[in-house]
């Protein structure tokens, strides 16, 4: 195989990797925008009431569907789900118990 033949085959792989990176960046931006819009909406509808425990509220609203989807993706394999999430398995189990998901 000649050098130019090898380089021609590498280009689609590199382009595919770049497309995946762009897609991941776009998804991250979409999630960020959704959270920002939801928070702006939340604060605009307080109607004079004080906000409290917003951080815990947001974490609960985000963590539950996050855990559900990752567990579905990993076919309920907690070890794999923990790896996907970047958590240790004990922390994942603690969160699953916290949200009555076990």
Overview of the structural elements:
The protein has four helices and no strands. The relative contact order is 0.06. The chain starts with a helix and ends with a helix. The chain is flat. It has 102 residues and is an all-alpha fold. It folds into two domains: 1-47; 52-102, Homeodomain-like (Arc Repressor Mutant, subunit A).
How would you concisely characterize the structure shown here?
Helices cover 78% and strands 0% of the residues. It has two domains: 1-47; 52-102, Arc Repressor Mutant, subunit A, CATH 1.10.10.60. It contains four helices and no strands.
Topology, element by element:
Layout: H1 3-44, H2 54-73, H3 78-85, H4 89-98
Helix pairs in contact: 2-3, 3-4
What is the count of structural domains?
A: 2
Radius of gyration: 20 Å
- CATH C-level class of the largest domain is Mainly Alpha
The succession of helices and strands, N to C, reads HHHH
Strand content: under 5%
Termini separation: 55 Å
Envelope shape = flat
Going by helix content, strand content and strand pairing, the class is: mainly alpha
CATH superfamily of the largest domain: Homeodomain-like
Q: Assign a percent range to the helix content.
A: over 70%
β-strand number: 0
Low-confidence stretches: none
